[in-house]
Every structure is written in structure tokens, then in C-alpha cells.
Amino acid sequence: MKLNFCSLSSGSNGNCYYLGNEFHGILIDAGISATVIRKFLKNLDISMQTIMGVLITHNHIDHIKGLELLTRKNHLPALTTQKIWKSILSPQMKISTDCIREIPLKQKFHLAGFDIEAFPVCHDAPETIGFHICAGDKKITIVTDLGHICQIATPYIKAANLLVIESNYDEQMLVNGKYPPFLKARIQSDHGHLGNHQTATFLADNINDKLSNICLAHLSKNNNSPEKVLQTLAQTFSERGIILNGHQRISILNRTTPTNMISLIEQTDSL
Ligand SMILES: [Zn+2]
Ligand SMILES: [Zn+2]
User: Fold this and answer.
1) What separation in Å is there between the alpha carbon of 166 and the centre of ligand 1?
2) How is 173-204 classified by DSSP, letter by letter?
3) What is the whole-number distance in angstroms between the Cα of residue 163 and the centre of ligand 2?
4) Which of 16, 21, 130, 181 sits a CA distance of 20 to 30 A from 46?
5) What is the CA(63)–ligand 1 centre distance, in A?
6) Is residue 186 packed enough to be buried (19+ CB in 10 Å), middle (13-18) or exposed (0-12)?
7) pTM score, two decimals?
8) Ligand 2 centre from 225 Cα, in Å?
């Protein structure tokens, strides 16, 4: 079966990712307006009827902006941990109780035919999680906001065939940029965001033949550019003598528009 992944939007302006097959799909985060999510999906020929739920990584507005309307209008279940729900729900963000689903940490649950596991990552929200999603023999890991890659997250990232990982800022651009010192410190901290060198070094240390698609996500508008991300990655890989095999692809996820659909062919045990 064909497994399709597409980023609808990625970055502090709003995050929303789609994963699905010919029958069902799920969204990861709803950080852009529900109207824009529906419009982008329609343009991709994906019916809202096939979306079975939305997984939420944490309570920052760039991950939940469209959640209230999306759940209300489309009666879409939203899934995250109890602690993250506590941090999301407020008079400004009311979600109908029948759309609220609590999920455990580091324990498999099922949604839309996928086996999914949530794991904690280090970021400055009350709790932030990444997702490891299995479909047949294909594994997708999504980690959008994290200050460093802690030991708990590493095995989930290493096991991925398709990896969505943050490459938020160019270290020099951030240091020389206009942000106030407290904000620079927050972004660079272990609970902030991953810089291009951090992500490139982690990828160089952990790249393996199973990893066919690397999607670099959550690029800063002010402190990064797709060219800087690719330059840093190319330089780090070349210093290590790493050459990608012919099947490995690197994509930079657009900040405000959908990226090209990535398809993986899922092998199942049946037949
Ligand atoms: Zn974010
Ligand atoms: Zn965040």
C-alpha cells in the first residue's frame, strides 16, 4: 500500500502535517487555521472525511491555532497526553469533550490503521511529544520542536524510514540577529529549538540505509533559510565522508505552503 506524507505548513507561523494511505489519513498538529487546513487538503485531493484524527505535539499556538474549529466543525478526535490537554484547554480554547482523547506516553495506540507511539522531547512547554508512527513495515518519526535530542527520543528517530526533524536556526544568523538576548538564549537552550549544526551533526551520527526521507522542518523565518540548512548539512556530511545512497532524499519543508507529497510503499505481512 502507498503511504503518503505531506507538510501543509511548517514553522513558527504554524505547523500541520498529513500522513495517510488511500483509505484514511491523520493530521499531526493543527497550527494553521482550520479553513486553510481544509483548503490545502482539498487542493491535494484529500477528503476531510478520510481524516480520522489529529495528533497534537504541545500547546504552543503554532501547533494548535486551528484545533478548536477543526474539532468543532469536523468532529475530529484530537489526541494528546493528559498533561498537554491540561495545558491546552482554556476559555480561549474550548474543545468538545467527545473530541478529546488522551494517549499514553511510550505505549502503542491505534488510529486509522496506524500503530502510534508518543515519546517525550525537550522543549519549553509543559510537555512536548514526538510521534513514531508505524504502517506495515514503514516507520515515520516526527519531532518538530526540541532543544536537544535526548536519549529517550533517539531510538525513535533512528528507527525511521521517513524522518521529520526540526532544523530551526542558523547559529550565526541567530547570534548576529536582532532578537533580544533573552529570546536568543531561549531558542539556543536545551529546551528551545534545534540549530542547523545540531540537526546536521545528529543526522551525520545516525544516518543509516533504512532512512529514505529526511524532511527538515520548522525553519525560522528570521534566523534561517533553506540554503543555509542544505549548506550546513552538505558540509557536515562531506566532513564525515557521508554519501547518500541513491534512494535517500532530503526535503526542506515550506513555511507557509504544502510541500510535494512523499510516497512510501508499505509492505504488509498479508498475502
Ligand atoms: Zn513550534
Ligand atoms: Zn513549541
Assistant:
1) 9
2) HHHHSSS-HHHHHHHHSTTS--BHHHHHHHHH
3) 18
4) 130
5) 6
6) middle
7) 0.96
8) 19
